[in-house]
């Protein structure tokens, strides 16, 4: 019985996550795991990893990503958005 309950819970969580991502209509299928946070890109690793966590969302903060054309601003924002959808779907974000 416990297995069935766990399976149903997992199914519903995955369904909510898919709905959040679909509703967000991200341009790219970027993930934090695929993001290159090397020093040569000029990204502050601590800042990017902080933005991948739900704290700044729970604190109702905003972020602005700026830079020259072709530097990956859209990719970064999609990766952060997917991370937010994943963590909020798991219940880490305030309602």
In short:
It contains 4 helices and no strands. It is mainly α.
How many whole angstroms does the radius of gyration measure? 15 Å
Q: Which band does the percent of strand residues land in?
A: under 5%
- Which spans of ≥5 residues are poorly predicted at pLDDT below 50? none
Please provide the count of β strands.
0
Q: How would you classify the helix and strand content by structural class? A: mainly alpha
Outline the structure in words.
- With 95 residues, the protein is an all-alpha fold.
- It has one domain (2-89).
- It is 54% helix and 0% strand.
- The protein has 4 helices and no strands.
- It has helices spanning 2-24, 45-51, 55-58, 73-89.
- The two termini are 30 Å apart.
- The model has no long low-confidence stretch (mean pLDDT 85).
Architecture blueprint of SSEs:
Blueprint: H1 2-24, H2 45-51, H3 55-58, H4 73-89
List keywords for this structure.
54% helix, elongated, mainly alpha
């Amino acid at each position: 019985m416990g297995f069935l309950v766990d399976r149903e819970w997992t199914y519903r969580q995955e369904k909510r996550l898919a709905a959040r991502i679909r509703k967000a209509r991200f341009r790219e299928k970027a993930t934090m795991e695929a993001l290159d946070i090397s020093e040569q890109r000029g990204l502050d690793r601590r800042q990017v990893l902080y933005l991948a966590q739900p704290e700044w969302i729970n604190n109702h903060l905003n972020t602005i990503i700026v830079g020259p054309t072709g530097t990956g601003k859209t990719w970064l924002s999609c990766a952060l958005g997917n991370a937010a959808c994943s963590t909020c779907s798991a219940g880490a974000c305030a309602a």
